[in-house]
Structures are given as structure tokens and as C-alpha cells.
Design a protein that fits this description.
alpha/beta; eight-stranded parallel beta barrel; binds pyridoxal-5'-phosphate
Length: 359
Amino acid sequence: MSRPTRAEINRDAIRHNAALVRSLAPDARMMAVVKANAYGHGATEVSRCLEPVVDALAVACLEEALELRDAGIAAPILLLEGVFNADEWLIASQQALWVTVENEAQLSALEQASLPQPVSCWVKVDTGMHRLGFAPAEVLDVVARLAGCPGVAGDPVLFTHFADAETAGSNATADQLAGFEAVGLSLPRSACNSAGVLRLPHAHYDWVRPGYMLYGNSPLAESTPATEQLRPALALRSAVSSLRTIERGQSVGYGGKWTAQRTTRIATVPIGYGDGYPRSAPAGTPVLVKEQRAVLAGRVSMDMITVDVTDLQAVAIGDPVTLWGPGLGLHEIAEHVGTNGYELTTRMSRRITRTYLDA
Ligand SMILES: *Cc1c(COP(=O)(O)O)cnc(C)c1O
């Protein structure tokens, strides 16, 4: 392999973060969310690593679940959005998947399906996100219909999803929890994503559903004793591939949008928006070169970025570069780009080789 651009994923860090979730929610079962290729970390590898230490996995859709079953993952896997068409009930049943029921079309398809084995269902309650789920007042009827349906295994789990659990003291979260509590059925329940795990111990219920924090990232703006213990699992790395000195007044990159204000040393690094490094990252976005901070200069290209290394000692071709990871927080890059860390890791493209370490 010659192009040095890669993501290093530390499985020990993922296991450590899962253990942290356990210690924060000791009485709840843990469903690890590995949708979107485990937030870019590699769904199969991450699921293999987590399967022994979590109670279930969750993905967005059937295709993602089948990828895991094909890789030999036997743990329960929940389809967080349920089925997208009636035929998927049969496959879900054959593959022993757990399936969300969140709308009437899914529910009536289930009632009409003839399935080789009954399916465990999670009923989604819309408490304020207004994206998926039944209104709290509809849940009693939905649960009764599931109880009368031969394709359903056992009692459903009731779950809901927060719109604003990141925000301390959010009124929206309090309203959502009140709506969820008001359903009033004695069934297993689940509400918390990572932010809820960190912020809402009173809402851990029977199952927690962390995603982002398992990868070592905190969704909270402030740091807490728990977030301090998270270990970032992924380092996006490359190396300096070219170096030049330009004079004051010369510009760098497409559109000539960045102009040197002094004699400037420019390091070129072979990673660009074709790899998922965001094109919207502005000049000034930090980059680690030889563990020292430098900044982007000029536009991100498809395959390359250019970095102002004038103030760094003796930079040479081949010197290591970190785009985000330990030493350069994902959230810091996200802030420069105007997005969140979730988008940065999920958009890392196929061109990024994932390598897995256990240390
Ligand atoms: C993605 C997702 C989660 C995990 O959220 P994080 O913020 O990554 O912890 C939990 N529940 C549902 C329904 C989700 O879609």
C-alpha cells in the first residue's frame, strides 16, 4: 500500500467505551448502535468486537443487518426504522432480527404476513421528534394488535428518541420523557442515546442505545467526569507527500482563495473530499503534522489538502499527519466545518483503508 491515508481503529478503545456505558447504566441492557457502517468505523469489525460485551446491536435497515448476519454476527440486531416494504418481514423473521414498528403500514403488513418464526418487535413512540413513531395515545391500541398477532414474539419493547438530549436541562427532553411516561404500560422501555446515557440516569430504563460514545466521542458541549473517560477509537491519518516554499502574495489551491501573507512553507497531504475530508473545511482548520498543530491553507481538493507548516520544525516528506483522532478532537474539526462529529466519521469514504489495532 503506497498512499498513506488510512483510518486506524482501536478496538481496545471501543471495548473501554462500552465498559464505561455499562458503569454509567449498570441496571440497563445495552444495545450498541452500529448503523451507517458503525459511524464509519466498520460495522462488521466493530460488531465482532462488541458482540461479546453488549446485549444487542442496532442498525438503520435490513441491508445493514444482513451484512452483519453474513459476517457471522449472531447477536440480536434491531432495525431502528423497521421494514421499508412488506417483503422485509419474511427476511427479518428468517434472520431472527428484531424489528421496530413505527407506523400503520408496517403494523398491517406484519398482521398479514405469514412468518416462519415470530419476530421480536420494538414499538416506537413519537414523543416530540416527529419523525417516526406512534403518538403516545395510539400505543395502547398498537400493543393490543401486536398481542393478537401470531407473527409477534413476546412482549414488545417501547422506545422513543430524544431530539435534544445534548442540551443540559432541555425543556424539550423533559416534555418527551413526560409523554413517554404517560403511556403507562408495564412493558420494557428504552429512551437513551449517548447523550441520554451521559445526562439522564433517571431515563436509562431497561435498555440504553449508545452509538456515538462507543466510538469515544462525546455529544455534549461541556466535559464531565464521564466524558473525560471516553477514548477516541479512530485516528484519521496520512503523511506529508510534497513540500514547497511560496512567496508572500502567491496563492494556494483552487480558485486562488488563500494568499500567503509571508514566505510560507506548504505541505501537501494526500487526503481530500474524495476521502470524506470535508471540502467545506476552511483555511485555519487544524491539522497535526508530526504531532504539532498546523492549519489548512487553501481549498480542500478531491485528493489532497495543503497545510501551512511555516511555524513547524523541519517538516519532511513522509512525516505523519493526523486529521482527527487522539490529540485532535473530532468536535474541534466539526466546529470549524460547521457540522458535527457524527457526519465527519460517517462520511469517510471507501477509499479510506480501515486498519484495526488492539492497543
Ligand atoms: C442513532 C440512534 C441512536 C444512537 O445515537 P447516538 O447519539 O449515536 O448515541 C439511538 N437510538 C436511535 C433510534 C438512533 O437512531
